[in-house]
Amino acid sequence: MRKRTVQMEPVVFGTVNAIIMLLLAVVTLYPFLNTLAVSFNAGLDTIRGGIYVWPRIWTLQNYKAVFITGTVFNAFYISIARTIIATLLSLFLTTMLAYTVSRKEYVFRKPITIIIVMTMYFNAGLIPYYFLIKDLHLLNNFLVYVVPGLISAFNMIVIRTYIGTLSESLIESAKVDGAGDFRIFMQVILPLCQPVLATVALFVAVGQWNSWFDTFLFASSKQELSTLQYELMKLLSSAMNSNSNPALQNGGDPNAAKAMVTPLSIRAAITIVASVPILIVYPFLQKYFVVGMQLGSVKE
Question: Where is the ABC transmembrane type-1 domain (predicted)?
Answer without folding.
Answer: 76-285
